[in-house]
Amino acid sequence: MKESMCSRWHLRLIVLLILFFPLTLSAAQGRVTVKGQSITLRQAIKIIESSSNFKFFFNPSDLDALPGKNLDCEGEISDVLKEVFAGSGISYVIMGDDIILKLEKKAASTQQKKVEIVGGVVDARSGESVVGATVRVKDVNSGVITDMDGKFTIKATPGDVLVISYIGYETKEVKVVNGKVLLVELVEDAKQLEEVVVTAYGSGQKKASMVGSVQAIRPAELQVPSASLSNSFAGRLAGVIAVQRTGQPGADGSDFYIRGISTMNGATNPLIILDGVEISSGDLDNLDPEIIDGFSILKDATATAMYGTRGANGVMIITTKSGRNIDKPIINFRVEGQITSPTSKPKFVDGATYMDLFNESLLNGGSTESPYSAEEIAGTRAGLNPYAYPNVNWYDELFKNQAFNQNFNVNIRGGGKRVDYFSSVTVNHETGMIKNRSKDFFSYNNNINVMRYSFQNNINAYLGKDSRLSLRLNVQLRKTKQPNISMNDLFAGAINTSPVEAPVYFPDDGVTTHIKWGVNDRLKPGQQQNPVAQLASGYQDNFRSTVVAALEFEQKLNFITEGLRFKALASFKNWSSTTNSASAGWNKYHLQDFSVDDNGVYSFVTRLQNESGGEVSTDLKPGVANSGDRRFYFQAIMDYNRTFGKHDVNAMFIYNQDELVTQLFSGDLIAALPKRKQGVAARLSYAYDGKYLAEVNMGYNGSENFAKGHRWGFFPSIAVGYNISEEAFFEPLKNVFSNMKIRASWGLVGNDNIGGARFVYMPTINLTGTGYTTGLDGDITYKGPVYSRYGNPEVTWEVGKKVNVGLDLQLFNSLNLTMDYFHETRTDIFQERGTIPQYLGTAGTKVFGNLAAMKNQGFDFAADFNKKIGKDWFISFKGTFTYAHNEITKYDESPKYAFQSKVGQSANIPSIMISDGLFKDPDDVKNSNQQIGGNLSAGDIKYVNISKLYGYDDDIVDISDWVWAKNPTVPEIVYGFGPSIRWKNLDFSFFFQGVAKVSLVMSDFHPFGDNSLRNVLTWIADDRWSPDNQNINATYPRLTRDTSVNNTQRSDYWLRNAAFIKLKNAEIGYTYKNMRFYVSGMNLATFSPFKHWDPEQGGGNGLKYPTQRVFNFGFQMTINNNR
């Protein structure tokens, strides 16, 4: 008995050790497995011999000319051999462990004259090319594999039958007709094809059995002429809201959210996973679509539950390509050239008009002063001299209308039985729209110049038939050269600098050794602005690198029980950034006097106007700055997947831990401490007969952000599904409803990313504080150490409760529809208290807690239509619609009026005053009780007494009379649609994308007011209130030099509908053999009620780096020797 127990103990130990080491096990005698694409007979023989005791005897020359074929067979040796040698002309005899092969006489004696047949293989439903399909002559030893475009060339005798096969499709036979070009359509085999979608932790789930809300998109749909991958999301991914706020090279990626915004603490971004490793949105933007094999969006709690706290805002999962089942290398090459131009350009009045308007602004304020004389205005209008009568369009001095970019990619993939590989190199060069003034100012080219290098290298080593070791390496390098001045400040300088006060620079007088930059502060003392000088006074060279390395091991454990698998992944990610800068001073001059001789030659007297009083050094002074972070991640997975008759069972258990070190070069001790997370997750799914589906998930996660007792959170989910179309009673409807599935899910998600704060359960104390003030009248001050934040040991997880109901439909085998309704309630949102009175002594001290709540609901919809028309035409259509509306349901606040409470409002919604046109005359001003600011006059904006409308006893209209706007600044509706048409080798597609229920607030464009010298935009000059145009509904109120707080208030006068629809992309291409030539474009046209700039960029004055219109010219070539 003791010996038996000891033996069992040793056996358990051996099994445990087996879990962590690769194994190569022999197949049971007589039962073998052969799987793979494009496998030659010799390769199949080697697979059988290596996994069994069988040995083959044959004449090598009999197999040399035989083609490869796609195989997926398992069973007794006789059954496998029948499949392997079908149609090859090879017969076999099994004699014990020996297998003797012989070439049949019919195949050997076939000597008829052959012709060359050219053709292509496509999916009958989608029209997409089928790559790697086997095309062979029936009963004869000749065959080929289709190339990357689904095309093939084969020699056959008229009357022969071609057999076309591919895994997941019904095998098709076509009779050869002399000289005829064949287009073969393969129909999905319902029994074989069950599309696998990549879901949580890289696990593949059959689409038919999925109950979570997951959308997969083909990588080809992400191919748009942009260096940032996220710019392809808007309108193409149902459930994703994406907006591009800038076109600046290297920073033009879109902001995106999965199903909108569900929290107010700033942690709104989805989790992004690349080959099992978490990456940032910046890393995502640098990915080339050429390397992507799968792209999935996980949207509901069931789909994201296994990521626990990391997946609260949805998950994007990206897998990269491999060389699996490709014998000979496939090389793909792509090169593109782009011409970019801004989608909008601000229009300013000329210098003389500016002078007239400036004088008008003084007259509107009651002044009789006219700083610009009629002589000055006439000289400026006539353009007598650019230094005596400057007329500078600062925007045109700084920016050009076009830029040129290049993009290049080459990738190769292939391998063999033991090792396969994929390697890709992408080089992207972008330039900005800043003018090169180096020849004008003896400076350097300060245009933005971004060089990106991206490398992806994947290697899979098969240590045995059940063991795999994979190494995936993604390296992103980026070098950026740009001015020292920020783009926001540079564009602001184009509007904030007077066009007539000074030239860009004064002519060289032969005495000074530096550039005499023009400035003038006679109308605004202290203003020393010259954006061209600021542009030329320094530069930055930034180099940043991102390295993501992942090592994964997989071991099938069928020897324990069929369908059991173990996987482990360890990854390292390092990001670093180094900025070398050089800056120099610039000398400021203004025109003191000028004279003109009899020949019309001008002479100038300029005066140095530096703040220091003397010349400043123009020598470049260097600077350097460093930053970076690194992440270590580990996960171990035990996965079980098996079918018992009509029962499909899947179970998964995961352990993971994560460590992130940020602020590597920071002196902040707390910020430099590693951020650590740990968790386990599990999933159990069941399907009966493909009809009735159920899934249960859970995540149990730990976070350092909370005190003991609150560090661990449990987040479960449950989902069910019903494939109605699999029922027998549904069969009569199959000709219309090819597929119908209903899904529903419920679950909890957690979020520990609470506004970026760390260790909030502990207080922070400022030991060098000057003191704090308290008392009813604020007249008591104590000096010494002060709390900057009170600790709260009860702070815990932000929790979201998610519900999803979905419907999947396929009509007529060609139209796929997916519809989902979602609702989320987010509670315990982290917030700083706003209701603690100052007399309690907390003034200036932060007090946090789980105080707020929010709900988010809506629906998303996706449609995909594919149809072949006649012999040569194929058309497809894609459309998406997403609506996501959030509402704050709880908030710790103390508003002045109840109607100003955030409760009931959306996040990202602006507060505005309500206008009532413009004041008509002085009596109208006198009777208005407006006390927003002084200097009110006819032509100023008049506001409604909102508080009185809501029943408050308040006759004064002031800045507290505001309400919430109707629509937020992040769109609640995003949609997209467009067709793709192919005729023979010519293809054409276009895609429209739009948004609705979104607003923007215009600001920072008001000329002259607040003592400003800001230039005047033409739309202001064209429709303004003036003594000659006393229109109380004018687009712009009166111009005034006085401080006019009234006219610059955020109000509905400046609120605009930011909805738009864009011709986002269009492309036309031609394919010739293995080459494709194409022309494409992005942001080609915008249709919107808002006309001043691209509404997608949001509010402000439009003076920011504009989004770019792109014209792209490309060439792609594929070299595929597997034919």
What multimeric state do the chains show? single chain
Would you tell me the overall average pLDDT? Answer: 86
Unreliable sequence segments: 1-29, 107-111, 190-194
What structural class is derived from the secondary structure elements? mainly beta
Largest sheet: 22 strands, antiparallel, barrel
Helix content: 10-25%
What is the radius of gyration computed over CA atoms, rounded to a whole number of angstroms? 35 Å
CATH class of the domain at 209-327: Mainly Beta
User: If classified by CATH, what would the architecture of the domain at 209-327 be?
Assistant: Beta Complex
Q: Specify the CATH homologous superfamily of the domain at 209-327.
A: TonB-dependent receptor, plug domain
Structural shape: globular
Gap between N and C termini, in Å? 64 Å
How many strand elements?
A: 57
